[in-house]
Amino acid sequence: MVLSRLKPRSALRQFFHGQASAGLMLMACAALALVVANSSLGQAYEHALHAYLGPLSVQHWINDGLMAIFFLLVGLEIKREVLDGQLSSWPRRILPGLAAAGGMAAPALVYLLLNPGASAHGWAIPAATDIAFALGVLALLGKRVPVSLRIFLTALAIIDDLGAVIIIALFYTADLSLPHLAAAAGVATLLFMMNRLGIRRLLPYLLVGLVLWIFVLGSGVHATLAGVVLAFAIPLQESPGRPDSESCSPLHRLEHRLHLPVSFLILPVFGLANAGVRVIGLPPEAFTAPITIGVGLGLLVGKVVGVFGTSIVAVRLGLADMPAHATPAQLAGTALLCGIGFTMSLFITLLAFAGQPILQAEAKIGILVGSLLSGLLGFLLLRFTQREKDLPA
């Protein structure tokens, strides 16, 4: 038993457990989607996505079904961090909270300055950070980046995800069906009653959560939000008589089980289904359209201004402390990584410009270019910035 515990993990297992691996796989699927969409297979690619399986198309099953599982994991992470993690106290929340708020407001303002008209509905597209990509790039840098910055980025991205969930619920909701909405509210109430009654088995929550997803799908509120509601109902407390381990908590068990399929199946499939922009045949003005420039600059410039600027002001005013052993240049590099908005930005694009393929294409070009430049510049700045000497990473 002792020997088995000491045995090093296989290369494959290390790959699947690495943040960098998840980011690289998502990047590879996005690149594959771009290649396929602009090849002779492009028409077959589009046909496959719009083929119907039962009541929904393949793309809808991915965006409304599989992504509900992604949002379930996001909700679990938010609940755990707020109640028992990096966001469990106000001192821990102040700097990432202010940085996240600035990092959502500034990109939206950049976008709106360039898109004051009908296309203003896409203001939230550059406001989100892709936690998988950003942490993946950070993981590639190893000990060059202080641990405090990794914690800061993780907390910021989680608050950012919560903000994106709220934005989707408030601003990207279609016409409401009151009967479905009332039924969804009733099912959500049942879930929280199950929590209060001390039900700790995951299966009942997942079955009731499936019913909740069906009602939310028909309500006009985006179906993925059912995953967040379900997550908030999952118990976090330890099992009675077993205070020695958090692993027995239903929330921790479910979060642990979802990480691999979400990181290495659901998000790559989402990228494969939604990153395929057919640039061949697009009019030249699509590459310089206000939406394209607004999204790209929102991610590349807005995120840095919002995250770095807000953080520095908060530190200078004494509202928060600088992340330990981090330099302002390293903080700026981390802020650049926040401009990687791939997954959530693509998701909001589909909601903001539903049924408008040209506008979606423009936004996707801005997302891809802005995210690529943000990731590359952030990596280079962190790679070649000298960290504080004689201090632990």
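The record above closes out task 2.4. Task 2.5 opens with a second protein, given below.
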Amino acid sequence: MSTEARLELGPSSLTDALYASIRKRIVNGEIPQGEKLTEVRLATEYNVARPTAKAALERLTANGLLRRTAHKTAVVPVLDQDEIRDLFFSRVTIEKAAVSALAVTGEVPADAARAQVAIEYAARDRLFEDQVEADIAFHSALVSAVGSRRLSRMHELILGEVHLTMGQYKAHRKAAPSTVASEHAAILEAIRAGDASTAADRMAYHLDQAQSRLLTTLTDGSDEVVPE
């Protein structure tokens, strides 16, 4: 990218802004799977110091949006079917535990409720990127609301890869826009009813459907949008 086309960052912390910008480009496929990212490239594209670029790369790597082995350049990962199944095995384990714990109190986290509203609006308006962001916020809010630092840390370890697969494979497009919103609403309903078993079952079903859509997309390479 030429210096004339350098990208602009917002007024927040420079490293945070750089991280957020690159993350968005990776998730949306602007920086595709298999592409390499270096400190020099980012410093040039964004007109930042190399230590700032290095810090952003390290954070992206820690969050699973990049991979880098010793003395190698960071690369946007390409997840195969086995890795996706392993990713969802971890998601199901963590998120079933989270909704089961929340159902004991019968209280739906406010952040999850707000994310659900955002998902419904995004589904109605067919705004794919907004739907992905709201979906991530929904699941993060459920796990965070449990109040277990260790459970949240485990979830954070896989959330980058979750976001990556949702954005780059666009698996949401394999379902009618209202499908994910309806599955989420069913989970919240079970939490509100204080039914831990049903909440866990509905979360497992939701994630199984998400995994199936993702594996189908990976297998056939289709990005066809399913109509409402």
